[in-house]
Description:
Shape: globular
Order of helices and strands: HHHHHHHHH
Largest sheet: none
Structural class: mainly alpha
Distance between the termini: 49 Å
Amino acid sequence: MVDDEGKKLMQAFQATGDSETGRRLFALYRDPLWRFLRRLCSSDADADDLSQRAWMRLIEVAEKNSYRPHANATFKTYLFTIARNLVIDDGRLLSARSVHVDVSSVAGSLQAGGLAPDVEADAAKANIEIARALAELPYEQREVLAMWAEGFGFDEIADIVDAPRNTVIGRKRYGLEKLRAALSEDVAEGVKNG
Length: 194
């Protein structure tokens, strides 16, 4: 299904420069873009910075009248491609070794949903373990899992990362295998030391 709303909003924003249209576009994609970037970055601050840079780049594209939507690609694909390129341009974010999990940020990102304190504590611990395991993945696998978590299909991810579909499928499979193994190791280590 092609994302007509995002395309229409971007085309209208490009044509008119209307700030209300820009706000609607931002409101629609702000959270998914930030979550994607947060999964690739070491901190909320890095995700905030890259998100802001992606939106600024999008405004520049609109000002230059250079947005040309592709018939079979969504606006979300276009926006995430911009964001991914910014991550790549900032080479320090590509190394799995450069990603250090900000534990307080991950734990604080949980929404208080009226859960029992012990359930919330378990969820926070699981989130921290998942974030640490994700940080250990090679960048290519991490980015595929981040896009997959945001609802992108294999073809869309392949377009964004400019790789064959089967390569994307392999990166997801190997990433999930490594993630499962890392989580199993963390859980086993906790049981062994506890």
